[in-house]
């Protein structure tokens, strides 16, 4: 049984974000690794950082662009000690660990911020893949 289900389904995030997070936690998003296995066209590297292979866990956690995004968002909300590091490479595990460190009265809000942030990262990645847009942290952070 997937132990992180509460993180996803008990947030205030819209259902489309929750469904995306469920798929991401199960590694079911159509990233380069899945496309390659099926012989389909795919980006060589992550479109956000252009440094590593594109897998959903990288996009949401260990990507340099994602870490800068999380740093800006979480620091502005007073959660600077919960920013993921380079070695945090499994999104749901990192999320669960950080959520446990948040005071209970703020936890649902924190989890919603993480859910919405992950959704925005995914949408920003898709803009880069399908519209050839360059990653722009300032544009992405404006949504918060």
How would you portray this structure in words?
By secondary structure, this protein is mostly helical. It has one domain (16-141). The chain is 59% helix and 0% strand. The termini are far apart. 34% of the residues are buried. Pfam families: zf-RVT.
**Beta-strand content bin:** under 5%
**Rg, alpha carbons:** 15 Å
- The sequence of SSEs as H and E is HHHHHHHH
In helices, the fraction of residues equals 55-70%
Give the integer mean of the pLDDT values. Answer: 91
- Tell me the number of strands: 0
Largest sheet: none
How many structural domains?
1
Low-confidence stretches: none
Judging from the principal axes of the Cα atoms, what is the shape? globular
Distance between the termini: 33 Å
Structural class: mainly alpha
Pfam families: zf-RVT
Organism: Eleusine coracana subsp. coracana
Protein name: Reverse transcriptase zinc-binding domain-containing protein
